Amino acid sequence: MGFEIDFLAVGEESAGGDAIALRWGNLHGSRSEQTIVVIDGGYSDNGSQLVELIRTHYGTNVVDIVVSTHPDQDHIKGLETVLEEMEVHQLLMHQPWKHSHVVEEARLQNFSTLSFNEKLVRSLQEVSELEQIATRKGIQIDEPFAGMQTNDGCFRVLGPSENFYESLLPEMSSPPSTAQRLANALRSLGTAVANLVKETLHEESLTDSGDTRPSNNSSVIALLQVDGKKILFTGDAGVPALEHAMDVMESEGFTPGDFNVVQIPHHGSRRNVGPTILNRMLGDNVHEKAHSVAYVSAPKKNPEHKHPSKKVTNAFTRRGYAVHATQGRNKRHHHNAPVREGYSACQPLPFYDEVEEESAS
Length: 361
Hints:
The protein is α/β, with parallel strands linked by helices and 361 residues long. It contains eleven helices and 15 strands. The mean pLDDT is 91.
């Protein structure tokens, strides 16, 4: 068996997103010997790019599974095009109105009762529209909770569990508190001023103090296992979500560093990972040379020094994971797959001797 994974370049300026296509099986054989999955679709324009890539390089118009990790606009908008223009068999997407009376009632009024949180309203409307497209086209819709897997067992959902997802919904559907609004304002100010601090392979400035929004922690975390190789997809998951996923992996005898490929969460934000969770995932040993690979979907520009954070890419590099960033160019990772014209090996990001330290002054 073989596999190939395409991380599409999403975002022209400083705002990035995720759009991933992958397939596994006998990639030198017929379509019936392969499984094709799309994980997130980026913005609207990226949907067309996904369709073109799958038709051109996978040689088909049929997608077995589309996964919407969570309803942020930079992940979900392009999926509308994929559902409309391709033959999709199954859509994996959370349907929050099935788990919350507040959201269910708000849906009857197009979520206008949640108007105090415009981002949430847009996200919920997008989920509802995606459901409508799938229903109209006869696409099977299932909610991706921990334990769900493909028939061959190669691709499975590690998180969230249904209980964890439902625990996040009250926070997702509530207005931000005064403290949260203040923290967000300070973050905006802080990203405008960044002091440089020194780092080495043995000196790390990344801490465990980061946090992320409940909607990001609701992201689907999935594992692909083919030919003994483990590939982890993380969406925009933060530390609590990643901890739940690692609980599952460790219960099965996982050893830190067993992942061959890891998607860096949330475009490399320092708020989604810290040394403790990375040690559980990647190991705590310092490596002079890379033994595995990490991919980060990052925009072309990074004026706020956060997507990706150099602290985060350094953290993966020192643990033996060579980091490749999209930053305006598609990236492909493959094993036992056909040669693709126009694609060549790319260079990983360097280890940075100086990294940005946010300052709110």
